[in-house]
From TrEMBL:
PANTHER family reported in the protein's UniProt record: FORMATE HYDROGENLYASE SUBUNIT 4, FORMATE HYDROGENLYASE SUBUNIT 4-RELATED
Protein name (database record): NADH-quinone oxidoreductase subunit H
Superkingdom: Bacteria
One GO cellular component term noted in the UniProt record for this chain: plasma membrane
Annotated TM spans: 6-25, 57-81, 87-108, 153-172, 205-227, 233-252, 264-287
Amino acid sequence: MLEVILRGLVFIIAAPFVGGLLSGIDRKITARMQGRRGPSIFQSFYDVRKLLSKQVLIVNSLQHMLVWGFLIFVVFTGVLFFAGEDILLVIFSLTTAVMFMVMASYSVNSPFSAMGSQRELIQMMSYEPMLLISAVGFYMATGTFNIKGIMQANIPAIVYLPGVFAGFLYILTVKLGKSPFDLSNSHHAHQEMVKGITTEMSGSVFALIEIAHWYENVFLLGIVGLFIVSNQWWSWIIAGIVILITFFLEILIDNTSARVKWDVMLKTVWAITLVVGGINIFILDIIR
């Protein structure tokens, strides 16, 4: 129990620093790819500090409460994951967090915000099946839904789940809000809906959203590592390398892809889920 509490505390304290740094590195690499110098890798921290100092313009008190709910459930999701708890519970907690975000956006009378919320729900429809298939795949490969048990397997899960891993990397682009799937919200200036789901959020409220995304990004990259980690010490090094490669590829895809329409996103994500994920699970069921 003490170990679980310590892991959770480490995530709560360290994740925003790691997530903020990753956000800054993302912006720096993006600028270099676009032929610009770019901001400091610490710019994300400066931006959040400035947001926290600004006057808060709350459209209604319900929105503020729902944004706090989004942050709390994202943190709770990460704590469950890094504490080594049940991966199904982790996925359900993440879904609950996103629903708080959607409700916060829907709570205001704004066409941009409402459209962003609708697109966020469509994105959920597209990536949720792959998340569940990933959880089922971990169980079939290791015999447990417990994250700590998955990490202690003799053989890394990716050996049994190459298709599921490929499918998860595909939906990761959706979850990270990268092009070509940045439909509901975008950190780039080319977002045609102003700021989509976060249009009516400003000041410290918007800062909470940014911090929540830092926590979420660390957690999502942690799932990438879960495919690689086993009871061998060297697997942690390989997992770190795979996470860094994945992070760079997401930035590369973001800067070389044009946004697609929601129906294209839905069809392609479901197709990838059924083909690479479904076939992988089917073959694994036969050989195991």
